[in-house]
Amino acid sequence: MAINENNQFGELSFSDSALKELAMKSYQLFFKENVPEFELNDKDIAKMIKIVENDDETISVYIKTKAKYGTSIIQFAKDLQEFLKSEVEKMTEVPVRNIDIVLDGLIVSQAEENIEELEKIPEIEEKNTDVEEKKEDEFYDEDNGSVEN
Question: Residue 60: CB partners within 8 Å, gap ≥ 6?
Fold first, then answer.
């Protein structure tokens, strides 16, 4: 089913696949700006986005996505909703009723993974001993410089 719009010059029609591709490109642009270290390919994005035409000639967008670790997930989702709505409406003049987002996981950058790994390493405690250092001649043999047993 397609969305049709009439104007003074004739009829405009947007197929579901065209609307989905528009949403996909907008989603990809949003991710490129907000999570540049994460590459998305078109196949993966196509599985993540669904467009539904509503009875009142609006569309609804459903997205299953990941959010960037270390940022506000709520703000990330709100920003994504606003961006997609404005981009799709700007390019098609088709009203977007809602954009539903399911957050499916987190994207952790390589730098953050390294920090997490460092946090897992137990700290090495230095032992402070007040024991007097032994003289060199106790450790080394004066004749050949080897360590005594």
Answer: 51, 52, 54, 96, 97, 98, 99, 100
CA end-to-end span of the chain = 89
Q: Which residues pair with 31 in a beta bridge?
A: none
DSSP state of 71: S
- Let me know how long the chain is: 149
Are 45 and 24 in contact, with CB atoms under 8 Å apart?
Answer: yes
C-alpha 134/C-alpha 132 separation (Å) is 6
Task: Determine the 3-state secondary structure of 144 from DSSP.
Answer: coil
Q: Tell me the pLDDT tens digit for each residue of 35-54.
A: 887 788 888 889 999 999 99
- To the question of pTM greater than 0.90 for the whole model, the response is no
The string of pLDDT tens digits covering residues 94-108 is 899 999 999 988 888
Rg (Cα) of the chain, in Å, rounded?
A: 30
